[in-house]
Amino acid sequence: MNEHFFIYDNEYFLTAQPVINISNRSFKYGDGLFETMRMEDGRILNSEFHFERFFDGLNILQFDIPDFLTPFFFTQKIDQLFKKNKQDTSARVRLMAFRGDSGILKATNNYPHYIIEIAPLEDKMELNKNGLVIDVFPDARKSCDRFSNVKSNNYLHSVMAGLFAKKNNLDDAILLNTSDRVCETAIANLFIIKDSNIYTPPLSEGCVAGTMRRWMLEKFSQRKYSVAEKNILIEDVLDADEVFLTNAIQHLRWVKHFRGKDFGNEKAIELYKNISENVGT
What is the secondary structure of 22-51 as a DSSP string? Predict the structure, then answer.
């Protein structure tokens, strides 16, 4: 059995080795952010969007970024870890940054400590055969502020929405914002299709700035459809022709059932074909 390593601040550790102490600010307060990426054949898909989002988040969270921490630096480290763990062709990469130790008002410094993990992915790159069953998570509302679009280490809303989904035999759960409009789901951005129009909530609605969401808005190219941002109500989801979710790992998954309505996947099949042929590094 091969040993499984991760990287913590440029050093290799076995997964069973503890590296975080009780004073760590990420552990105590969620002070940090993370990036989840998919690798295929040793390449990070949508790498440009991932690293832009990661470094934008570091700046928003007021980290002092040293000159050597660059997308190229992290790409090299990820590649080295991929090879050291003798990873298969498909893998999930998790890059996390955090501020370190001490109390809320007494940060030692703003240096971004980092951890890189790589795990094999069994899920093939294919459209889900069984449509998702989703509902609305009723117990929280996501705020619309400067930090809403960051993949923060404080992921409580999504964690609780995930527990709600599991308890109620759902595949995912929609998170609403403080205006009771659709924001995102526990692990994805949400899109609806109406006629030849594809809509997703704008970032001002509080959703995470998903990399596949951005790809759909900036790089999706199919004359039959237009993709745009729009405020979305629950009623808009129910009125949609089709509904699908996007994230970096599974790219696109179609929704079969939401609050008494069944959806098809004819258009989602077309969209997924376009994505699978065009999403790259």
Answer: TTBHHHHH--EEEEEEEEETTEETTHHHHH
Provide the residue type at 189 as one letter: N
- 74-110 burial: b if 16+ Cβ within 10 Å, else e: bbeebeebbebbebeebbbbebbbbbbbeeeeeeeee
**Where are the domains positioned within the chain?**
5-120, 132-278
Q: What is the full per-residue pLDDT of the chain (281 aa) written as tens digits?
A: 457 999 999 999 999 898 988 888 899 999 999 999 999 988 999 999 999 999 999 999 999 999 999 999 999 999 999 999 988 789 999 999 999 887 777 777 899 999 999 999 987 889 999 999 999 999 999 999 999 999 999 999 999 999 999 999 999 999 999 999 999 999 999 999 999 999 999 999 999 999 999 999 999 987 889 999 999 999 999 999 999 999 999 999 999 999 999 999 999 999 999 998 888 64
In angstroms, how far is CA 204 from the centroid of its own chain?
A: 17
Return the sign of the alpha-carbon dihedral for residues 7, 76, 93, 212.
positive
Q: Is the pTM of this model over 0.90?
A: yes
Q: How far is the C-alpha of 18 from the C-alpha of 10, rounded, in Å?
A: 15
- The architecture in CATH of the region 132-278 reads Alpha-Beta Barrel (3.20)
Looking at CATH, the fold of the domain delimited by 5-120 is given as D-amino Acid Aminotransferase; Chain A, domain 1 (3.30.470)
